[in-house]
Write a structure and sequence with these properties.
There is one protein chain. With about 290 residues, this protein is α/β, with parallel strands linked by helices. It has a domain at about 60-190 and about 200-240: 3-Layer(aba) Sandwich (Pyruvate Kinase, Chain: A, domain 1), CATH 3.40.1380.10. About 60% of the residues lie in helices and about 10% in strands. It has 5 helices and 5 strands; from the N terminus they run H-E-H-E-H-E-H-E-E-H. The protein has helices at about 1-55, 90-105, 115-125, 145-160, 210-290; strands at about 75-80, 110-115, 130-135, 165-170, 180-185. The chain has a 5-stranded mixed sheet, with helices on both faces. Strand 1, helix 2 (about 90-105) and strand 2 form a beta-alpha-beta unit. The longest helix is centred in the last third of the chain and has 81 residues, at about 210-290. It is elongated.
C-alpha cells in the first residue's frame, strides 16, 4: 500500500498544480481582453494622427525626426520587446530567432535596446548582441507615459551622430493562436501624401503649421511605440493563456493515468489480502477436520 499512498499524494499535488494553472489561464485571458480593447483604440488614434500629419505635410517641416532632416548614421538601434516573466510559451525564443534572422540581413552595425527581463537574460551573455540599454519590466497594461519614457531615450540616441535608424522588433498580435514576430521603423519618420488628401497649402492652421506639426509629431511617435508595447503584451498574455491551458489539460490527463495505476495497485493489494484470508480459512478448516 505504500506505493499506492505515494501515488495518491502525487495525484493530489498534480491536482493542486492544475488548479493553479487554470487560475493563471483565467487571469491571462482577462488581461488579454483589456489589452485588446486598448489596441483597437490606439490603432484608431494613430490613424487619425497620420491623417492629420499628412494633411499638413509640407517642406516647411523642420523636425529632424523626419527622413532627410537627420544625417544618416551608420548605427541602427533595435528596440527588442520581450517578456518580463516566464510561462508564456516560446515567445522569447521566437523573438530571438527573428532577431538573429533580422541581424543577418543587416550590413550596418546594430545595437540593442531590450525591454523585458526574461529576454534580456537570454541575450546578455551572447557575444553576437551589443546591448546599450534595457528596461527590466513592462507594465501588464502599458501606458502612454511608459511609451514616452522609452521614446525619450531613443530620440536622444537618434540625435547623436552615430545613430541613423531606430527599429522596433516585437510580437505582432493577429489572433490568440498565431502571434508572430514583426518589425517596424520608428525613426526617422516617413510620411507619404495620400491621393485625395488636402495639402497644407489649402488648409489654414492655427496657431501655425510648424507649431501644429511640432505638437503632433511626438504624439505619433509615442503612439507607434505604445502600439508595439500593447501588441507585445497582448501576444504575451495570449501565449501564456494557451500555455496554461495546455498545462491544465496535461495535468488532468496525468492525474487520470496515475489514478488508474493507483486503483490497480490498491485492487491488487485488496485481492492479495482476500486470497490470504481465504487461504488461512481453508487451512484452518482442514486442521479442524483432523
Amino acid at each position: 500500500m505504500s506505493k499506492a499512498r505515494f501515488l495518491l499524494r502525487r495525484i493530489q499535488a498534480i491536482k493542486n498544480t492544475q488548479k493553479t494553472t487554470y487560475a493563471m489561464k483565467l487571469v491571462a485571458g482577462a488581461k488579454l481582453k483589456k489589452v485588446q480593447a486598448l489596441i483597437d483604440g490606439n490603432r484608431l488614434y494613430e490613424a487619425k494622427l497620420l491623417y492629420s500629419l499628412k494633411a499638413l505635410y509640407s517642406d516647411q517641416f523642420s523636425s529632424p525626426l523626419f527622413e532627410g532632416k537627420h544625417s544618416e548614421g551608420p548605427v541602427e538601434v533595435i528596440v527588442v520587446i520581450g517578456s518580463s516573466r516566464g510561462l508564456c510559451g516560446a515567445l522569447n525564443t521566437n523573438i530571438r530567432k527573428f532577431l538573429n534572422d533580422f541581424l543577418a540581413k543587416r550590413t550596418n552595425p546594430c545595437k540593442l535596446f531590450v525591454i523585458g527581463r526574461k529576454l534580456f537574460e537570454s541575450l546578455q551573455f551572447s557575444k553576437k548582441f551589443q546591448i546599450i540599454d534595457w528596461v527590466e519590466d513592462s507594465p501588464d497594461i502599458p501606458s502612454i507615459k511608459f511609451a514616452q519614457q522609452i521614446n525619450k531615450k531613443l530620440i536622444d540616441l537618434f540625435f547623436t551622430d552615430e545613430v541613423g535608424r531606430v527599429t522596433i522588433i516585437y510580437t505582432h498580435f493577429t489572433s490568440v493562436l498565431s502571434p508572430k514576430p514583426a518589425y517596424k521603423l520608428l525613426l526617422p519618420l516617413i510620411l507619404e501624401l495620400a491621393d485625395g488628401l488636402q495639402s497644407s497649402d489649402s488648409v489654414l492652421f492655427e496657431p501655425s503649421l510648424s507649431e501644429v506639426a511640432d505638437y503632433l509629431i511626438p504624439r505619433l511617435l509615442d503612439t507607434k511605440m505604445l502600439e508595439a508595447l500593447l501588441e507585445a503584451k497582448c501576444s504575451e498574455q495570449a501565449m501564456r493563456m494557451v500555455a496554461m491551458e495546455n498545462a491544465t489539460k496535461n495535468a488532468g490527463e496525468l492525474a487520470a493515468k496515475l489514478t488508474l495505476i493507483a486503483n490497480k495497485l490498491r485492487q491488487s493489494s485488496i485481492t492479495s489480502e482476500i486470497l490470504d484470508i481465504i487461504g488461512g480459512a481453508e487451512a484452518t478448516k482442514k486442521e479442524n477436520q483432523f
